[in-house]
Specification:
- The complex is a heterotrimer of chains A (325), B (295) and C (328).
- Chain A is an alpha/beta fold.
- Chain A has twelve helices and twelve strands.
- In chain A, helix 4 crosses helix 5.
- Chain B has a single domain, classed as MetI-like fold (Orthogonal Bundle).
- Chain C is 81% helix and 0% strand.
- Classes of the chains: A alpha/beta (325), B mainly alpha (295), C mainly alpha (328).
- At the B-C interface, helix 6, helix 7, helix 12 and helix 14 of B face helix 1, helix 7, helix 10, helix 11 and helix 12 of C.
């Protein structure tokens, strides 16, 4: 069953310097209990998409311009703010990128967890606090540390607290926005394993945002590749990793060092991400695409299904001559 | 996103000095209030320089027949208790205020930045000693300190300027010291030192130009503050003395007519307020333009 | 915490000593001669010399300064008013409560109103209310306090006769002076609360709070406010000096018998002992108020509190360790 379905989502940031088109017609489906990886470079619009699902895009300057977001069959974009608040933290919750700034420095961590429990679970303050302490031990933090402030915790510990907050009400969907980017390499695996285990245990669906294809391979069922506010390729791990279609995705794989393959030189993708206030005409990837032709400069490609559940946004796939390579 | 672009530009600006200036100007221009403040400051400077030509009457020309007149075409802002044209007195007052303020800020800038630069650069006991004394100075509110110094010098234009100048030294010492400390440990200082540059050369070629921004802002802020303190001192009778036409001293005479003659009280206050507002708007804009990261 | 407070109080001593030194030095070089005001202009040279000797004016700078410091430190003796022949200390302490209450009330008023205005302004950024309050704070922060006082006097006391113009007997007398002194600080607090609030609202932990499903009121009151107020408190602390200075000037506008009017009168009469005493007491008050603000600051921000507590914790840990070894 589809838990989340995004159709044609468009989010713009309107500033004095121009309109930044962060998300341009994103389609994405997450089934119940499934983990989907959303992969892309910095500035591809991943975080904006995630904030858009919770309707937390900072406004002004951000604005959801178009599209639909169905969660459990209901369009979130049509909901009142009051109804949204009932969903945030209870049905959909989010783990933020930087645990250093995601916790309020002036409130004890126990209270920060208890707060979300009290908000949604209709219980007393003391009960909320005792459940918060349970949550802390679930993420491997000693209960007595509940009375401490965030500055007394290390980065990895803080991220555990953020995870505890996110999972405290057993949400149906967990959005993890680069949960390990800000952490030490040694801690990254620990935190990632913990998120993965808890997600499995609680049967939560997950949208994992990352720029690391390796992380996706370990934790996700499906993967969506995002570039300049659009989904370029979407499919199961097997489809995208072993039957890569889109030139951008191929470029991403070519730029990762591999332990098993003997390769001379890494091949970075030529050029830079386009400025979201001045996107190229036609296919947004054409200025960097090794296989771009004249038509790519004028005609934007649409999503085409190359095989069951494997979608690619490339003119080459529309025509079917992708098979050559 | 816009922030990163801005910061990148700033770094690019460091390479080309000229580019940096035009960048600062571009950022300043965006802030309309700051630009308005700047034009007003320029206008005030012009008024101060050409006061004698602008003022329709000599500021000290008494005329007992025409005393305490309300504003009219002949006397735009009325006349005072000696029948002197208030508008002319306020115009000349602009010159007095700005001159005293400029003199005062020159004193504070000179001594303050020497103390601040040397404290930051030499460090050690010298730094502790200087900064402790500055802290002590700062624990006396600046108006009070200025009154105290003015007392020992005797009242008048020069002593007011010296008093305010000295009371502002600690502020400049602090600002310049902080400015040096933030850049002292930067890598380009290290690089210059490894290239064999001596202390004096590093101080003059690298540290002084790079620490100018906060000091410039402080100069602008201090000018406003000095004008405020001059008028306050003169108002309570410890600053510029009548018959010199200073805004605060005009107000202190006007106070006696508070019940029945409003121009004497309203117009001088408007002159002071507009001056202070312009200087403060300009300073704020300058601060944001010089360092966008602070915003 | 107590250790920290004691340490801060001890640190005040050198600052106050330096203040004494500065003020005494300024005073020492003052041109006036207290002898003339004591014995009168017609006194003979011998009379003058005798008074000089008895006052110890012939001693060197160091000796005189030492004596002054000793008197202040041991007996809080600030010298004698040569005109009224009363101890300066008594004259000051009669008037100090008035000035301090004025300052305190003004700061309290400015903080409460300014923080409220700032929060509303930030919450409804770019609304008409925001524009009005930003414009007000831009203008009001730059208006000289004594002129605001004169204008308020002119309008409310003399034109509409709603409030008394001078005197200091009933609460109604306090309204105009307190409003006058509060004016600048109120504007500055409004502006800083607004910008600090806008800064905090953009922080990640506010998004976290919203992502928890908290309502807007809770987000602002429980998450944003405490963090936003930390820098505002610093600003208020900085403004206390200005407020004290304003109080001194504004007292003369409303003819309030406070420290300010005492000092201004003394200045005009070249009554240096009194001026000196006033400055020292004002500096002392300023330092003490700043200390209180710093402690409040620690109360608001657990990170700073943590720094103070660390020293204490270490001693506890040490004690526990030594206790353990004694047992073993």
């Amino acid at each position: 069953m589809k838990l989340l379905e995004i159709r044609g989502l468009e989010i713009h940031y309107v500033t004095d310097d121009g309109i930044f088109k962060a998300v341009n017609g994103v389609d994405l489906v997450i089934e119940e209990g499934e983990a989907v990886g959303l992969v892309g470079e910095t500035g591809a619009g991943k975080t904006t998409t995630a904030l858009g699902i919770l309707r937390l895009v900072p406004s002004p300057p951000g604005k959801i311009v178009g599209g639909e977001i169905f969660f459990a069959g209901e369009n979130l974009l049509k909901k009142s703010m009051k109804a949204m608040r009932k969903i945030r933290g209870a049905e959909i919750s989010m783990i933020f990128q930087d645990p250093m700034t995601a916790l309020n420095p002036t409130i004890r961590v126990g209270e920060q967890i208890a707060e979300v429990i009290k908000q949604h679970m209709n219980c007393s303050k003391t009960e909320a606090l005792s459940r918060a302490i349970d949550m802390l031990s679930t993420v491997g933090i000693q209960p007595e540390r509940a009375m401490e402030y965030p500055h007394q915790f290390s980065g990895g510990m803080k991220q555990r607290v953020v995870i505890a907050i996110a999972l405290a009400c057993q949400p149906k969907l967990l959005i993890a926005d680069e949960p390990t980017t800000a952490l030490d390499v040694t801690i990254q695996a620990q935190v990632l394993d913990m998120i993965h285990d808890l997600q499995q245990k609680l049967h939560t669906s997950m949208l994992l945002i990352t720029h690391d294809l390796g992380v996706v391979a370990e934790t996700c069922d499906k993967v969506a590749i995002m570039y300049a506010g659009e989904i370029m390729e979407y499919g199961t791990l097997d489809q995208v990793y072993n039957d890569t279609k889109h030139p951008y995705t191929k470029g991403l794989f070519a730029s990762i060092p591999s332990l098993d393959k003997k390769a001379g030189r890494l091949q970075p993708i030529q050029g830079m991400m386009p400025n979201p206030s001045d996107l190229p005409s036609g296919c947004v990837f054409h200025p960097r695409c090794p296989r771009a032709s004249e038509i790519c400069k004028v005609k934007a490609a649409s999503m085409s299904e190359v095989s069951g559940g494997h979608f690619v946004r490339c003119i080459l796939c529309e025509n079917g001559d992708m098979e050559g390579k | 996103m816009a922030k990163t672009i801005e910061v990148n530009r700033l770094y690019a600006g460091n390479i080309h000095r000229k580019g940096q200036l035009s960048e600062i100007w571009k950022r300043l221009k965006k802030n309309r209030l700051a630009v308005a403040g700047m034009y007003f400051v320029i206008l005030l400077l012009l008024v101060a320089v050409f006061a004698n030509y602008i003022a329709p009457y000599p500021y000290d020309k008494a005329n007992m027949v025409e005393r305490l007149q309300y504003p009219s075409l002949k006397h735009w802002m009325g006349t005072d208790n000696f029948g002197r044209d208030l508008f002319s007195r306020l115009i000349v007052g602009t010159r007095v205020s700005l001159m005293v303020a400029a003199f005062a800020v020159t004193i504070s800038l000179f001594f303050g930045s020497i103390l601040g630069y040397t404290a930051a650069y030499i460090g050690g006991i010298y730094e502790t000693f200087v900064m402790r004394i500055m802290d002590a100075f700062l624990s006396i509110p600046s108006i009070i300190l200025a009154i105290a110094i003015a007392v020992s010098l005797g009242f008048g234009v020069t002593s007011t300027a010296i008093a305010i100048g000295f009371s502002n030294i600690p502020v400049f010492a602090r600002v310049s010291r902080a400015a040096v400390l933030t850049i002292k440990d930067n890598e380009f200082i290290e690089a210059a030192r490894s290239n064999g540059a001596g202390n004096a050369r590093i101080l003059i070629r690298h540290i002084v130009p790079n620490s100018l921004a906060p000091i410039l802002v402080q100069i602008s802020l201090s000018l406003a503050n000095s004008i405020l303190v001059i008028s306050s001192l003169s108002f309570v009778g410890c600053g510029v003395q009548p018959p010199t036409p200073e805004w605060g001293s005009i107000l202190s005479v006007g106070r006696e007519y508070i019940g029945d003659f409003y121009p004497f009280l309203v117009f001088p206050g408007i002159f002071i307020s507009v001056t202070l507002i312009s200087f403060n708007l300009f300073s704020d804009g300058l601060r944001d333009a010089l360092d966008p990261r602070l915003k | 915490m107590i250790r920290y407070i004691l340490k801060r109080i001890l640190m005040l001593i050198p600052v106050l000593f330096l203040v004494l030194f500065i003020v005494f030095t300024i005073n020492y070089f003052s041109p006036g001669d207290p002898v003339s005001s004591i014995v009168g202009a017609e006194a003979t040279m011998e009379q003058r010399a005798r008074v000089r000797e008895s006052l110890g004016l012939n001693d060197s700078f160091i000796v005189r300064f030492g004596r002054y410091v000793l008197n202040v430190a041991t007996k809080l003796d600030l010298g004698t008013d040569y005109i009224t022949k009363r101890p300066v200390r008594d004259e000051i302490f009669e008037r100090l409560p008035t000035t301090l209450s004025l300052t305190f009330l003004a700061i309290a008023l400015a903080s409460v109103v300014g923080i409220t205005l700032g929060i509303i302004s930030a919450r409804f950024q770019y609304s008409i209310f925001d524009y009005m309050s930003t414009l007000f704070s831009l203008i009001a922060s730059s208006m000289p306090a004594f002129w605001i006082g004169l204008m308020l006097l002119m309008v409310f006391a003399l034109k509409f006769r709603m409030l008394p113009s001078s005197g200091f007997n009933s609460p109604r007398h306090w309204i105009l002076p307190v409003a006058t002194i509060a004016f600048n600080v109120l504007a500055i607090v409004t502006r800083n609360t607004r910008s600090s609030m806008l800064e905090v609202i953009r922080q990640d932990y506010i998004t976290t709070a919203r992502a928890k499903g908290l309502g807007e009121v809770k987000v602002i009151a429980q998450h944003a406010l405490k963090n936003a107020l930390i820098p505002v408190f610093t600003v208020i602390g900085v403004q206390i000096g200005r407020t004290l200075g304003n109080a001194v000037v504004v007292e003369t506008v409303f003819s309030i018998p406070g420290l300010g009017s005492l000092m201004v009168t003394a200045v005009k009469m070249s009554n240096f002992e009194v001026v000196q005493g006033c400055i020292i007491i004002i500096a002392l008050s300023f330092c003490v108020i700043n200390l209180i603000v710093d402690l409040l600051y620690a109360f608001l921000d657990p990170r700073i509190k943590g720094q103070y507590m660390k020293a204490g914790k270490r001693t506890i840990a040490k004690a526990a360790k030594s206790g353990g070894s004694a047992n073993g």
